[in-house]
Amino acid sequence: MRYKRILLKLSGEALMGEQQYGIDPKRLEEYAEDIKSVVDKGVEVAIVIGGGNIFRGLSGASQGMDRVQGDHMGMLATVINGLALQSALELKGVETRLQSAIKINEVAEPFIRRRAIRHLEKGRVVIFGGGTGNPYFTTDSAAVLRAIEIKADVILKGTRVDGIYTSDPEKDKSATKFDSISFNDVITKGLKVMDTTAFTLSQENELPIVVFDMNTRGNLMKIVSGEKIGTVVNV
Ligand code: UDP
């Protein structure tokens, strides 16, 4: 296997599948199967999940809601998604722990770095909910932060697009995909991989990011076993 310990970032929106809102049970099951396949190969898997399928603080703020209040709702949304993913994984027989950045002890363990690492060493999938626990951040920042804390080898950012393109491939048919690109080139070319806070944190800590299409079955396994899928961002 190419990687021993991975941090998989899944957006909340990805969980919607074909729906406009919420969680598509079929999509959830597919993700659980793909994740199980790499766990079965002995790869240590931590997951940060977003909440955009349920609530985003910014959209609350645009409708007049207090931003911090909205962000708290967004963080809770990520815990809901974490619970759903946990349940889908356990139905497949994968042992999991959900750790939350906001205290919600009846529902999830608190985030404790050493305990998270211990779970990973025992082969459990650790799902990090609640983002960073702070308003004004995103789950991309949470993904980078947790990846650094648990010393993951790489962040695998699962998206709808199969990598980083010269321009938005959904709008520009002439866009071409990068197989690999440096952090600096992403910045100078003005490309969008993650929000700036998350991206800079990754760059400063020389933590590679692989952007790939998580909706194609088997892609996760291909990346983990070393196939060149998606785009790698590296120093
Ligand atoms: N959020 C937050 N702090 C964090 C992570 C998330 O306040 O550290 C809130 C924020 O309101 C955000 C929402 O949770 O809009 C959902 O997270 P995100 O937008 O990152 O989810 P994704 O786009 O991955 O679905």
List key phrases describing it.
9 strands; cytoplasm; Uridylate_kinase_bac; 37% helix; Carbamate kinase; binds uridine-5'-diphosphate; 235 residues
CATH topology annotation: Carbamate kinase
| Uncertain stretches | none
Radius of gyration: 17 Å
Q: Can you tell me the overall shape?
A: globular
Strand order of the largest sheet: 4-3-5-2-1-6-8-9-7
String of helices and strands: EHEHHEEHEHEEHHEHE
β-sheet strand percentage: 15-25%
Secondary structure: helix percent: 25-40%
The largest pleated sheet is described as: 9 strands, mixed
What's the name of the CATH homologous superfamily?
A: Acetylglutamate kinase-like
Terminal CA distance: 22 Å
Reported CATH architecture? 3-Layer(aba) Sandwich
CATH class: Alpha Beta
What ligands can be seen in this structure? uridine-5'-diphosphate
* Total count of strands: 9
Oligomer: single chain
Binding site for UMP: 51, 71, 132-139
Binding site for ATP: 9-12, 52, 56, 159, 165, 168
Organism: Flagellimonas lutaonensis
Subunit structure: Homohexamer.
Describe this structure in words.
The chain has one domain (5-234): Acetylglutamate kinase-like (Carbamate kinase, 3-Layer(aba) Sandwich), CATH 3.40.1160.10. It has eight helices and nine strands. It has helices at residues 25-39, 57-62, 67-91, 113-121, 139-149, 183-188, 196-204, 219-224, and strands at residues 5-10, 44-49, 96-100, 109-110, 125-129, 154-159, 180-182, 209-213, 231-234. It starts with a strand and ends with a strand. The mean pLDDT is 97. Bound molecules: uridine-5'-diphosphate. The site of uridine-5'-diphosphate (UDP) has 24 residues, from helix 2, helix 3 and helix 5.
